[in-house]
Amino acid sequence: MAVRLRLKRIGTNKRPIFRIVVADVRTPRDGRVIESIGVYNPLQKSAALTLDEEKALSWLQKGARPTATVRELLSTAGVLERFAGLRKARKSA
Question: What's the predicted TM-score (pTM) here?
Fold first, then answer.
């Protein structure tokens, strides 16, 4: 089963709020999810991002692939740097 980290829209008209979710590739955008790991609100001045970094790292280690937008959000939060460090440490061990 291919798994993606992607956005799920939960806002109203012209007021989008997105959940960062783990979902099967074959499910629709707002369809069934495996787990919700964060919330992204692009309308706030600082573009508020709430993310459970440990869950995100766990899913990345299991092979989940982030979409382009989620990759940017994870990079902003510093999760991708931690993931790269973990992969580097595992390869050298």
Answer: 0.87
